[in-house]
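This part of the workshop introduces the protein records we will be handling. A record pairs a protein's sequence with a compact description of its fold. Comparing a sequence with its tokens is the quickest way to learn the format. The record below serves as our worked example for the rest of this section:
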Amino acid sequence: MKLAYIPSPSSGVLYLGPVPLRGYAFCIIIGVFVAVWLGNKRWIARGGRAGTVADIAVWAVPFGLIGGRLYHVITDYQLYFSEGRDWVDAFKIWEGGLGIWGAIALGALGAWIGCRRRGIPLPAYADAIAPGIAFAQAIGRWGNWFNQELYGRPTEVPWAVEITSSAAGREPGTYHPTFLYESLWCVGVALLVIWADRRFKLGHGRAFALYVAGYCAGRFWIEYMRVDEAHHILGLRLNNWTALLVFLLAVLYIVLSVRKRPGREDVVEPGASGGEGASGGEADGAEGDSVEGVEKKDEGESSDAGEDAKSDAGEDAKDGAGSAKKS
């Protein structure tokens, strides 16, 4: 008899009268809120306007949800379009099934549209929201706990998750809580990006690329532990190959970006004031005022010196004339 394990909820839905509150959707919503909140703080600190992150998120979030669902349905099409399945289930996003790869890809497209409408560089925006996205993923993974899905191999470790449902081919028992492993990993990635951004002043999309590389590194080994149905290529799950490819692309981007555009953007939002950009501007302005004052002072001193020279010359001329008369 196991003495310790993580129990699964008996149901992933709570009801407020006739209104269902689904744990999976609730986790996604909280994650989005945290991502926007933290992204807004980081954007303001970089010199952007308050509210800009939320305005662009209006484009990015819907695109991200659609992209995440499309990736899941396409890569696991047998769950919805094989014999005995109902294709309508492909639209039931509340039952679980969002692929982070599709969510980031289409979410980036939505963010690009929003940034373009505001005249903002997408890489700067991506850097601001990168750790917030990692925190959102950490929260969103608990939605899998509510749905009793995406667990790992059977295990007897004290932190194993207990699966009680037998629906959709599940076998009750205790398994590695891969949702928990990924949640903790995402928190670590978010903290890494925040630290690296402060330490090295990452810019031009490099903070976001660091988040992508860090997440992919963890997703590779976590994905390897999972036992849910998936397509395999050369002995590895499809998501393992995706994580490996995206990791290499993120690292390549960091290397090339450092060579091509070192440093960090001076201005992230035209016309905005505040944050690092504004501080720099104020400092420059103060320095300019100081230099201008010194120059004016020097001009004044030069003028006074000129007047004194003229006065001395006049006195000498008078003395010379007087001496000539006397002679």
